[in-house]
Structure prediction request, 347 residues.
Amino acid sequence: MNAPLPTPVRIRAATDARGRPLRDLRISVLDRCNFRCPYCMPADQYPEHHPFLQRHDLLSFEEIERLARVFAGLGVRKLRLTGGEPLLRRDLPLLVAKLAAIPGVEDLALTTNGVLLPRLAAPLRAAGLQRLTVSLDALDPAIFSRLSGQRGDVAEVLAGIAAAERAGFAAIKINCVVMRGVNEGEPLKLAAHFRGSGHLVRFIEYMDVGTLNDWRSERVVPSAEVLAQIAEHWELRALEPGYRGEVAQRHAYLDGAGEIGFISSVSVPFCGECTRARLSADGQLYTCLFAREGFDLRGPLRDGHDDAALAALITGRWSLRDDRYSERRDELRGAIRDRVEMYHVGG
Prediction:
């Protein structure tokens, strides 16, 4: 007879130096990816034989599960699996099943480029994955190919979305990073394509995450510009946030054809309501997407710390959190030269 699964250690819910609770945890399961998107893992910086993490450096599924249970005991209610490309991690449905069984976790999601969904959507759904987000920066095949570092085919991503629909995933989020001079003409096409589908397209301002993506402010397309573009074709109304810390500003089509969303970290920062922590594939805790360094949890975990000790480490780190980079971008950008790369913490 199997022993019962441990319940999360219950400690007073963690809050940071600005009173923000810890509610969301993004878990990177590996740092590798089959694309080379210029805003995340540009091909000239990450060639074919780039030395990514080795297997022994990665947290095991059992280690991820244990840390997730500790985070749940501190108030985390939402888990999202990321990468790199998380579907490249072997036997990923086994991890999903472990995380789906954690008491207190109300939302279990995953972000992917979608290419491997035809094979994995059904097993992931059966394992307990509740929601999917698919990155899709363009419908035009040539633009999509450029934005994937010449490694992607938009038809494969659309096939992945179709496979996810067949597997039972509803209201899939479609993420599009908009870059001036690259794909600023694509939002209207994406909005038209997914209107009435039940899926939610979200347009994301190009951010200065990391130090290797050659970010320049003139490449940012403000969300207000994209919204105006779409509003010329369909009437929209703004929606209230669905929960504290929701990053997307949502708008509904007045004709009932669904919603679109905007993530405006550059033009309208939302640091004040940020409830997210990020766990990298090698067990580093990051309290901000723009952090310079992480806090090691893999070492204490492998050194034998019990759950209460791990919870105390996490609470202590979170309590010191004062991050609000997006609100201070102009002030800090020149001063902070080294920031964690997006692929390492999953965006």
Q: What stands out?
A: The mean pLDDT is 88. The chain is about 30% helix and 15% strand.
